[in-house]
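Team,

Forwarding the record for the chain on the shared tracking sheet. I've put the sequence and predicted structure together so nobody has to dig through attachments.
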Amino acid sequence: MTLNESVPAALPVVERPINDVVVDVPTGRRARRGDDGMLGLGLLAGPANVIMQLARPAVGYGVLESRVESGRVDRHPIKRARTTFTYLAVSTNGTPEQQKAFRRAVNGAHAQVFSTDESPVKYHAFDKDLQLWVGACLYKGVVDVHRLFVGEMDEETADRVYVQGRALATMLQVPESMWPADREAFDRYWAASLDEVHIDDTVREYLYPIAASRLRGLRLPGPLQRRNEELALLITTGFLPQRFRDEMRLPWGPDHQRRFDRLMKVLRVANTVSPKFVRQFPFNLLLKDVDRRIRTGRPLV
């Protein structure tokens, strides 16, 4: 199957190319969808997106060996999540002042992330190719979330979201010329980049608690902990394309897909009937938090 061929509807959303043929969206619904921005339900896809990013060995070991203690997702998951989601909000919907301040803060943290002679792979957080990969993963996550919880985009909306998504990479060191020219070019980039995906035992062990949403220092009573991890693994694995499931050795079959689809359907209905400020929470508040931190001199990352 080529990248431009339509994918059967039975396939999960996350398996579909970005440039897949979109359905015609009625005009009335199109106007409603145009104001959705970042959806709060996208937080559910966060662990899967982290796995996708870290599936490139240089990114995985860059995070695993990071000297930035406060940014380690395994030790400070809530703070790391706040930083990542704020980056999403600022890069796509922030003001130029917010973007400039956040870029400076992230660059300060990235300056401390580079490999040593003992590192299994060579990496540096200022590597433009690695930053492009991370931005591409974030953009793909935005599209997958939109398809699941809002619905298909018409061509105009898909192109607009693609232009906005470019900032997920270019807000840092990635020049605009490196971002694929259009959605079809993005699919070619994504397919080629999958050849560089590999999760070894060390990174897999690091990522599994993230997939299961285990919070350091917090453990529920036995049965509740198991149920919570089962649900988290279902959601995380459901948002992962099959290549990443295989690398993580996470099982997936028809029963898993049906359970995932049922859960997403319930959440989609809840999202549809929610008011705009609820749909966009917490991204709307994170942008206000950036202004507050800039004003008071508090760290942004």
